[in-house]
Amino acid sequence: xxxxxxxxxxxxxxxxxxxxxxxxxxxxxxxxxxxxxxxxxxxxxxxxxxxxxxxxxxxxxxxxxxxxxxxxxxxxxxxxxxxxxxxxxxxxxxxxxxxxxxxxxxxxxxxxxxxxxxxxxxxxxxxxxxxxxxxxxxxxxxxxxxxxxxxxxxxxxxxxxxxxxxxxxxxxxxxxxxxxxxxxxxxxxxxxxxxxxxxxxxxxxxxxxxxxxxxxxxxxxxxxxxxxxxxxxxxxxxxxxxxxxxxxxxxxxxxxxxxxxxxxxxxxxxxxxxxxxxxxxxxxxxxxxxxxxxxxxxxxxxxxxxxxxxxxxxxxxxxxxxxxxxxxxxxxxxxxxxxxxxxxxxxxxx
Length: 350
Known about the structure:
This protein has helices spanning 12-26, 141-147, 153-161, 172-184, 191-216, 226-241, 243-246, 250-257, 261-272, 276-293, 298-304, 310-321, 325-338, and strands spanning 2-6, 31-33, 36-38, 44-54, 57-66, 70-74, 81-87, 93-96, 102-105, 113-117, 122-126, 132-140, 165-168, 341-343, 346-348. By secondary structure, the protein is of the alpha+beta class.
């Protein structure tokens, strides 16, 4: 088993130290490209992505399966850092806490979140071939004290749990937030701006879950099966990342998921407020808007979102937005020039 040692931190040095640890264990060329750790196929399938959102808070997104057994070892130190691990995968992994107890996490609501102070040791065991999908918020207590002044966040949470390391049940709201982070992280320029708000939202959801359990004396239980919710989330993610998938019929989507169409529609109404076909339509039309803003021809845009007939696409676009694609693209040109701006020091061209 390969042992990857790390210390909690929120600066880029955390990422470079992680790469060094991977290379020393795998003895392969594992490289750092921008904010991503890139693995050769002989080491793993997927990547690890790091976002330093501001001084004192960062986000680590792990979405990978390794070719060998891997153990992540968080070495303890008194540094004022905390880590919140949100296990969003559909396969289970083992976590050993500071007291030596072993917990099974993943593929269930219970123990879906691990909160750990830097002073507490922890180990996460990832068997070879298992898909490991986890969002980790790395935060310094200074950030929490300065920017979450409305809540005595640390004191409340630690008092409620009576420990500096504990697990909390994952709920639907948190799982949706985590999945949204993975989908939006690929936005090259605006990712950090979007993720900054998403991290704040997830911290609030976690706080509310902990405090609700304290007030009620028991954990809130999500009645929907974890695997079914994960499947529905995966379907929507595929739609957003593959427009061809968003063009499939409900029957075809059901065939790829192993669930019947009635169940899928029911889950989509609960999670996203609408049925599958309506969500797919919104995704396709939003993609059309983005491509028109980039200057693609109406014919090309229509074909990419599933309309071989340009007139049919134009009518559908008009029925959705009350403006034709041609007029929208024309009116958006001067707006596009005004929207060239700098976000966090990077010029964005819409």
